[in-house]
Amino acid sequence: MAQKRILVGGAGGFIGGHLAKHLKAQGHWVRGADIKQHEFTDLGLDDFVLGDLSREEIVKQALDGIDEVYQLAADMGGAGYIFTGEHDAAVMHNSASVNLAVLENGVKMGVKRFFYSSSACIYPERNQLDPDNPMCSEDSAYPAAPDSEYGWEKLFSERLYAAYSRNFGVPVRVARFHNIFGPQGTWTGGREKAPAAVCRKVAEAQDGGEIEIWGDGKQTRSFLYVDECVEGICKVMESPDFAGPVNVGSEEMVTINQLAEKVIAISGKKLTIKHIPGPLGVRGRNSDNRLILEKLGWQPTQPLQTGLEKTFAWVSEQVEKAKTASK
Ligand code: NAD
Ligand code: GDD
């Protein structure tokens, strides 16, 4: 395998951190870039640019001498961050500014291939009202009607990458991630997604107590373990002719109540679920893997249970560390 010079935008974050480490382990020269260092691990990369990728001097430094860009930097979070409406302007401005700067400068500086991380949040709300039968096939994206500004920015940026590819002839690969979880992801602070939030609540609860879940818990989702997400990203990026956008997600759909029950069982505690009002997002969502299977002969296989066991163990450690630190 020929060694490439790779930039991972958002390497200080959850998926970007796992991806950058994987690419480094594959033998590539890897530079990360992010507005923050990784909170949970030493990435051990060849280089790291600490700064805002929407700023010209930073993005030029990050892109210098780079063959391939994996662009994962974004202003993002779970339902508690993207569905409250409070962060809409920041989400749209920050994420779009990064994508504009990375593409415009990357093309001028000779980048040979881009990967862009889009989201299941681009799919129309109208197809995700029935929790038992959500539709998220790639060709259902239009007429567009995402239920969040985060989803609209992702759709805009998908189109931006496609436009640069058409007009400048640079290959672009796009994946739509469906709720990725695992160790070293945000687990507290307001941006955490349901798997980490539920793991934290269960880890913090006293045996015999209760945990709070937003809504009636009957809303559905599928969750993809981060190692399989990294595998999917590499399959999409390496594809010789299939550009996407394509779903990278699990088809093992569960209700949020089922997710909580699984985590409670892993913990060995006896806990009850209390339903409280909260930001909900779409009523049902599941990955549709027909296209990725047809085009790339790949789809994830790991059961949710396996990833949840690893994630619960990691989140429990963080909860313990935080308790010790506050004493
Ligand atoms: P994350 O928040 O852990 O990582 C994103 C990183 O981008 C953060 O470390 C953040 O500091 C960085 N960043 C934000 N603005 C920046 C800027 N201006 N300059 C430089 N860095 C900046 O999120 P993640 O879960 O690792 O997500 C990675 C990508 O995948 C994002 O684009 C996200 O929208 C997309 N995605 C994630 C999920 C998921 O379930 N995690 C689902 C769909 C799509
Ligand atoms: N975060 C969180 N925390 N969600 C909870 C909680 C809680 O304590 N309790 C119940 N939920 C419910 C939410 O109300 C929502 O209905 C469901 O669990 C899933 O929430 P999240 O995991 O936070 O987000 P999401 O699936 O709606 O959207 C996420 O996935 C997209 C891709 O599939 C987000 O991370 C998006 O940014 C991402 O693009």
From TrEMBL:
Transmembrane segments: none annotated. Residues 6-249 form the NAD-dependent epimerase/dehydratase domain. Keywords: NAD. The keyword NAD applies. Pfam families: Epimerase (PF01370). This is NAD-dependent epimerase/dehydratase family protein. It comes from Granulicella cerasi.
